[in-house]
Amino acid sequence: MTKSSTQTIPEATDTPQHVVMIMDGNGRWATDRFLPRTAGHVRGVQSVRRVVEACGRKGVRYLTLFAFSSENWRRPQEEVSLLMRLFVQTLEKEVDKLEEQGVRLRVVGDLSAFEPRLQELIKAAEKRTEHNNTLHLTIAANYGGRWDILQATRQALRDLPDLAAHPENFTESVLAERLSMAWAPEPDLFIRTGGEQRISNFLIWQLAYTEMYFTSVYWPDFDANALEEAFAWYRGRERRFGRTSAQLAEKQS
To answer: How many alpha carbons fall within 13 Å on the CB side of residue 202?
Structure first.
């Protein structure tokens, strides 16, 4: 029997090395306070700053935040416009802090849909922080998991045109190394705020063995304490990666 995957199985650790988050609940946070939904997004930027700093202190190596999905274009135009302005303002204001904290910033997704000014800011921020290695911060913007798999497949067919004639050569590694986050390890911990319990087309290939944590806390209220609660839950999980509990015990003895 052949193995179904050629990917390396990560080791379980007390501190998740790669945390991915869906920052949900901004609009509902604002609605509960009789504020416009856009006020929740403004407040949510503060939570991003808190979580980035907390992850850095806790020794997280990779933090990936789902900021804007490919489906979010369907939202009211006023809200989408505000999100784009916030993205620009945040890049302009926060890059200095990221540089000081040793954070490397990357943005993944179909960036061609963004206005030229935003694309330029993204490229400049990535270039300025590319030498940093304390924390690898990735923002997923105009991103979708299905898009990611499709673009990786298309790139594989461009790079290796013989695949069509020899599909047996189309392995998991051929696809995985062309995904938009091929440089990062697979996520250890997925966190979604706001009470919803689904992955919403986020990193659907990479989340195969990820621990899923859902909280009813709205994103603007998510802070270092809420993050520690998620980490405490994670430490209580038994990460078997297809093995049995007995095999894990034997490996650790």
So the answer is: 27
Interacting residues of 121 by C-beta distance below 8 A, sequence separation 6+: 88, 91, 92
Alpha-carbon distance of 87 to 161, in angstroms, equals 38
The answer to whether 50 touches 224, Cβ cutoff 8 Å, is: yes
pLDDT digits (tens, 9 = 90+) for 199-224: 999 999 999 999 999 999 999 999 99
Percent of the residues in the chain that have a pLDDT greater than 70, as a whole number: 89
pTM of the model: 0.87
Give the C-alpha separation, 17 to 203, whole Å: 16
> What's the CA dihedral at 11, 13, 19, 25 to 10 degrees?
130
**Under DSSP, is residue 215 helix (H, G, I), strand (E, B) or coil?**
coil
Contact between residue 181 and residue 138 where contact means Cβ atoms under 8 Å apart: yes
pLDDT at position 54 is 96
- C-alpha torsion sign, points 29, 34, 38, 39: negative
Active site (catalytic) residues? 24, 72
